[in-house]
Amino acid sequence: MAAGLLAAHPGEHDIESLAVERKDVSRVAKKLERSGAVTMRVERKPVAKASADHRVTLNASQQQAYDAVAASIHSGAYKAFLLHGVTGSGKTEVYLRSIDAALEAGKSAMLLVPEIALTPQVASQFFARFGDRVAILHSAFTGWQRSQQWRRIRSGEARVVVGTRSGVFAPVTNLGLVIVDEEHESSYKQEETPRYHGRNVAIVRAAEAGATVLLGSATPSLESRYNVELGKYELLEMPERIAQRAPCPSSKSSTCATSSSRRAAMTCFRALCSTSLEQKLGAGEQTMVLLDRRGFSCVMCRKCGERVQCENCSGHAHLPQARAPSAVPLLRLRRARAVQVPGLLERIHALPGLRLGESRG
Predict the structure, then answer these.
(1) Coil, helix or strand for 286?
(2) Nearest CA to 308 among 260, 356, 262?
(3) Element (H, E) at 150
């Protein structure tokens, strides 16, 4: 089949284009090369040249974060930073400036993003800044594309690597900076064999290479915040959005736990939300209401807000509407499973101020 294709279409062919129709084109091409039927050579597509015209003036918090990371890079010693910046605070510009500092020091840099969908968006900014020194790695590439990028990284031609969690294993030489964007994302965790956490592997690799680690997030993970308290990470904060963007929306927290009945709870809810809803609807704007409750949740003290919890897990008790209050309640768990909990009814009645009802949660 391959011989017939070459006879019908003589001349040069792009393996990357042929791989769209046939997945084994790379293997067949290498076999033909070994037999002397064809000659293969590697040609990279032209990439936009680097440009420094897109640089912006850093604000005070951005400058403070960049100065700390740049000083760590030039010191040549391992250090970990947690960059806690709200959405729109300009974390990407801090990433770009930090990679600039690593390149100026003669070192390489790596940026990990949580999802493949984010890779082209981020890569476009990096190509505009660093040109053909950027290599992209993610699982959506074909074998030929990954091999091409891998060779560029190993030869030192590409000194800036942008990829998903698997990119943490790229053969980067003289590593000086590792950036993990949205470090709280669960997609960094590999569920199949081999199982690993991309963020943790990045930290260990940076420690062995004597590089700087920058973990960025608007909502840092609990373990990263705890490592800050232990002194393992240094906290860098960017609490405000940059001037060109809209300010963060305001938020308000309220509770109806003091309501003694379903009717009182609904009255409380209407008092809190109806005015705002009417204003938005009157202005022709859309409104979204999220109800994060399931089952017929009435196993809760209306005075103190205490809920009956399973002794063996963190699940809360939910009383189905179809069951009488005198029956043994069910503890609703994930995947629509239900288990009988002995003694749960006595614990429910022991709660002060509790009223058993059939309110839908």
Answers:
(1) coil
(2) 356
(3) helix 143-155
123 membership: H or E segment, kind and range: helix 118-130
Q: What is the pTM of this model?
A: 0.65
Report helix, strand or coil for 136.
Answer: strand
Q: How far is CA 15 from CA 8, 142, 149, 158, in A?
A: 16, 11, 15, 22
Q: Which residues of the chain have pLDDT under 50?
A: 47-48, 50, 323-341, 353-361
Helix 91-104 to helix 118-130 angle (10° resolution) is 50
CA torsion sign for 297, 298, 299, 303 is positive
| pLDDT tens per residue, range 58-91 | 899 999 999 999 999 999 999 999 999 998 888 9
The tokens for 327 are 């029956």
CB environment 2-18: b (16+ within 10 A), e (fewer): eeeeeeeeeeeeebeee
Cis peptide before 325 (omega within 30 of 0): no
